[in-house]
Amino acid sequence: MWLIRASLRPMREVTVFVGGSVGSDPYAPNTWSGSSSCLLRSMKDENLLEKAVGIHLPKLTNYVRLAKNFHLDRNLWRRHYYFDPKYRRALTRAAAAVPVSSPVLMQIGHMFSLPEAFPGKKCISYHDGNLAGLVASGFGLDGVSRMRIEQALMYEHEAARRVTAVFTFSEYLRKSFIHAYGVPAERVFNVGGGINLSDAPEADPAKTYTAPRILFIGTEFVRKGGPQLLAAFKAVREKIPAAELHIVGPTHVDNLAAGVTLHGHLSKADPAQNQKLKSLFRDASLFALPSLYEPFGIAPLEAMLYQVPAVITNAWAFAEFVTPGVDGELVEKGSVDDLAQKLTALLSDPDRLAVMGTKARERVLERYAWSAVAERMAEIIRAL
Q: In the prediction, which pLDDT does 349 show?
């Protein structure tokens, strides 16, 4: 009888820590690109979450670390600051000051080390990407000192090997932790990631694809392949003069060609801007994100939920998002010609897009819901 009662008792055995580069307020809409609050709600629904805490450095400590890593280039300043092992150790000490009673702790990201802060606890880390993948991409580290990169890699390597288990957003990332960081395969689990929508849009049986309208979403325009998309779109317009390209994210882009509309940054937290974003999803016939590097990338999945097939880079977790020709297409990284050809072919066949859009929505609902992620986490944590 006791065993039966124990099995029925809600778990609520996990304390989640967020902080560092992902943000320090667990439920803020911009923390971890919006994924943190969605994940926590699903963990709570699964009776898995005891509490979530945000950690940050004391003001004086933070000012000292910022000063020691100062650089005139704000991007380089940010990189050196976050890669600084002294910053990460200070963040770990801040985590250690948090009172916890749950037997399992989970950290989001690699900016601190829960096993170091709580050596007697079972500790899990959850990741959408890692530094090894960024270094391998050859993108985004120009100007960062080699010493600081090596320090950060060593820190992530040690932190990953010390946790009880590593959870990843993708199979690509799971393999990266095994091969790049040497974490035993039986301790790395691909639990997946989810779309950051509190309420999924209903399927639109009347959706049409006759308007050749492409949607791009990405604040980091260069990293997301924006220049390559602009070049490819010029070729698309030569074949399909009515083609449109709608860009969301950057506030300024130089030399916009005919047919391109820049919408700037649209926040989901602002009702009016969120409504505009939803209408762009609904009106699009095709989504394009030819990123040069992408640790995960949720925007294509959100588009697919709106029955919009995605054309994305054939690399990283992206390669797991779509089955080419079924619910989207994959393009070679940096290839303007490949991108232009596939965009033109798809926009020229609205009936095919309609079938692919239905399949795209089905794929997201089956594989990329946060509720399903929390269920997979719960099963693994119970086994621990």
A: 98
In degrees and rounded to multiples of 5, residue 326 shows phi and psi of -105, -55
Whether the Cβ atoms of residue 161 and residue 181 lie closer than 8 Å to each other: yes
- Segment-wise mean pLDDT, segments of 10 residues, the chain, 384 residues: 38 91 91 92 95 95 95 94 96 96 95 96 96 90 94 96 97 97 98 87 96 97 96 98 98 94 93 96 98 93 97 96 97 98 98 98 94 95 89
Distance, CA of 283 to CA of 213 (rounded, Å): 8
Tell how far CA 240 is from the center of its chain.
Answer: 33
For the segment(s) 2-194+369-383, the CATH number from 3.10.450.50, 1.20.1300.10, 3.40.50.2000, 3.40.30.10 is 3.40.50.2000
Ordered by start, the domain boundaries in the chain are: 2-194+369-383, 213-367
pLDDT at 11: 61
Q: What is the phi/psi pair of residue 337, to 5°?
A: -65, -45
Which amino acid, 279?
S
Who's near 84: CB < 8 A, 6+ residues apart?
Answer: 65, 68, 69, 148, 151
Q: Which amino acid is at 19?
A: G
First to last CA, the chain: 23
**328 token code pair:** 């989207």
Q: What is the C-alpha separation between 140 and 136, in angstroms, rounded? A: 11
Q: Which residues contact 157 (CB under 8 A, 6 or more apart)?
A: 181, 182
Q: Which residues contact 234 (CB under 8 A, 6 or more apart)?
A: 257
The verdict on domain 213-367 having CATH code 3.40.50.2000 is yes
Torsion angle defined by CA atoms of residues 92, 193, 140 and 144, in that order, rounded to the nearest 10 degrees:
10
- pLDDT score for 176: 96
